[in-house]
Amino acid sequence: MKIATFNINGVKARLPRLLEWLDEFSPDVACLQEIKSIDDNFPRLELEDKGWNVETFGQKSFNGVALLSKHPIEDVKRALPGLDGGNDAEDEQARYIEGTIKGVRVASIYLPNGNPQPGPKFDYKLGWMDRLIEHAKKLRALEVPVVLAGDYNVIPHDEDCHNPAAWVDDALTQPESRARLRSLLNLGYLDAIRQITPSGPMYSYWDYQRGAWPKDHGIRIDHLLLSPQAADLLKDAQVDRLPRAKEKASDHTPVWVELDID
User: Fold this and answer.
1) Is the pLDDT of residue 123 over 70?
2) Is-contact 192 224, C-beta < 8 A?
3) What's the CA gap between 259 and 253, in Å, rounded?
4) What are the structural domain ranges in the chain?
5) I want to staple 30 with a disulfide (CB 3.0 to 4.6 A). Which of 12, 68, 95, 159 is the partner?
6) For residue 220, how many other CB atoms are within 10 A of its CB?
7) What's the per-residue H, E or C state across the chain?
């Protein structure tokens, strides 16, 4: 069972590339971020005609997440709960969706960028991460395979970016951001990519500017975190660099994990 995460950077602009990648790579599940589309305008028919089950949590022009699956998606939940377990009525940003697929609880996550920092956007990022940590605790307690997949907008370590000095003041590398990502891992979740490839460049994002892609000046911010039950099923995890080289590509490329599930 292959589960991929892909920040598509606008599903309407990237639809030909998305359909192409789905046909060629053929994941069982694709977690999309930054679809930048309300639910009613999402290209559901184009995907359903190819056999995909589709669940979305959209927002006009910004954010938005989706789950695409070859298998039925059950018990879908949209929006990250508040710290008290209820809905956070003040949060209007569409950044989280989860569902159960073949017994695996899968989430598509678009974590806030947080720039500029310090400031309200960085405070929102940290608060959102606190909510994610609390929700991840509850998912962990279910003792079922859980995959928290998405664009985390956190560079875990300096080796996860081409030029650490260029990112020292960015929200993606701040101690508070990295500490919260470590808190997720300390709950018992596994960074799938680093389990398979413990060190070295495994970039998932290259800026459109300054020739970042041809120079391979990238960063690793798209992650798949596995609960212990999912980690026990881990077969492989890799970055699919091919889509980033296509014309009119997203600035992200897919990252995927394969679990030993028939």
Assistant:
1) yes
2) yes
3) 20
4) 2-259
5) 68
6) 23
7) CEEEEEECCCHHHHHHHHHHHHHHHCCCEEEEECCCCCHHHCCHHHHHCCCCEEEEECCCCCCCEEEEECCCCEEEEECCECCCCCECCCCCCCCEEEEEECCEEEEEEECCCCCCCCCHHHHHHHHHHHHHHHHHHHHHHCCCCEEEEEECCCCCCHHHECCHHHHCCCHHHCHHHHHHHHHHHHCCCEEHHHHHCCCCCCCCECCCCCCHHHHCCCECCEEEEECHHHHCCEEEEEECCHHHHCCCCCCECCEEEEECCC
Model confidence pLDDT, tens digit, residues 222-239: 999 999 999 999 999 999
Cα–Cα distance measured from residue 151 to residue 114, given in angstroms and rounded to the nearest whole number:
13
pLDDT band at 87 (very low <50, low <70, confident <90, very high): low
Which CATH number applies to 2-259? Answer: 3.60.10.10
Q: Which residues does 179 contact at the CB level (< 8 Å), separation at least 6? A: none
Give the β-pairing of 74-78 and 104-110: unpaired
In 3D space, the residue among 258, 259, 252, 261 whose CA is nearest the CA of residue 33 turns out to be 252
**C-alpha–C-alpha distance, residues 119 and 109, integer Å:** 22
pLDDT exceeds cutoff 70 at 171: yes
